[in-house]
Specification:
alpha/beta, FAD/NAD(P)-binding domain, 2 domains, 5-stranded parallel beta sheet, 9 helices
Amino acid sequence: MVWRIIGVRSIRTVTTIIIGAGHAGLAMSRCLAERSIDHVVLERGEVAHTWRSERWDSLRLLTPNWQSRLPGFRYQGDNPDAYRTMPEVISFIEDYANAIAAPVRTHTTVTSVRRGDSGYVVRTDRGDWQCRTVVLASGACNIARVPAFASLVPPSIVCLTPQQYRNADQLADGGVLVAGASATGTQIACEIQRSGRPVTLAVGEHIRAPRLYRGRDLEWWMDVAGVLDERYDEIDDIARARKVPSLQLAGTSDRSTLDLNALSDLGVTLVGRFVGLVDGKAQFAGSLRNMCAMSDLKMGRLLDTIDAWIDARARDHDLDGEVEPPHRLPPTRVPDEPPLMMSLAKSNIRTIIWATGYRPDYTWLEVPVVDHKGMIRHDGGITSSPGLYLMGAPFMRRRKSTLIDGAGDDARELSGHLACFIDARAEPAMALAHAP
């Protein structure tokens, strides 16, 4: 590391700066260290900051313990099929940072990143850095997506995002409207309904999935059959694939399936997508039946893929006689006439939870690689700005890119590209230095 004085400001120089010390940033740190590329990891809080501060109390990973695999590190316990609690996730990532001796600078908030004469200038609240390459690993879920009409919610109703929700005890007595039925929305709706508060779940696009299929965890099948390794450059419409919601999975101790049928059995009321609010009345789309039918169809296609793989490869993986027969879940049950409008006051709705997705926060990025929706334009994590890379984005290089298990493969490939970029920049400079 080199210190330079520019004017009255000191600036430190390093080859690469990684922004974010979550699992994605740490995986890249390990891969850069293996290539002897000097770097630092800048983290606004502690290691695994978002896992500490932006998750609800009962949340567990959707992936089994065995699927926590990072470069040079993996699960070593005696319960590989269980699902980590948030404290266990935090400990796992902390242990990884310590095991690889990651050069993390905690409590260092990046305030701007811009192009410099020989790379990038990264400004923080603890000083400035100059580097040749930058890896953006600050997370894909920094800001909750909340519709504009949320401003019309009556002041007597409390609105929360999943980042603000901790447990049902923080909610007022009365009804709760949960908007969004992917993994987050269904899990929160289930927990709140069990607390005794009646829940209405507004259902948009979602993907239904069984927790167990043919005797094994669905993630095991998706892993071994190569579904999670499907690459971004093999997809016809990668922009659409990157917007697909997460599977309706839950990491419960009984490994049960949490879908709309299970929620209906608990007493949750299903309505269509939350589309508007007029005079204290919530408006819902009339597409509930179609959304559920599409979700069932997508689930069927996924299970068909797994069945086909089993038929073709079972003997190669010593699965003969160990696999249950194919089966399908009953169709999603939909009310005959779900309401299109609901008075929040008459329904005693006291809380609305916007489980309507997230987006990253790149307001500090002064490099023209962000589109009008605030998303980084990239090709498999490689941006149009030379030396600027992305990690941890949905379907960045593989379907599993946002999973802990996906960071390693992405980091290995991108660190290779980064190393080649550095070498290419170094060769002309060396040639000039040795010129007669």
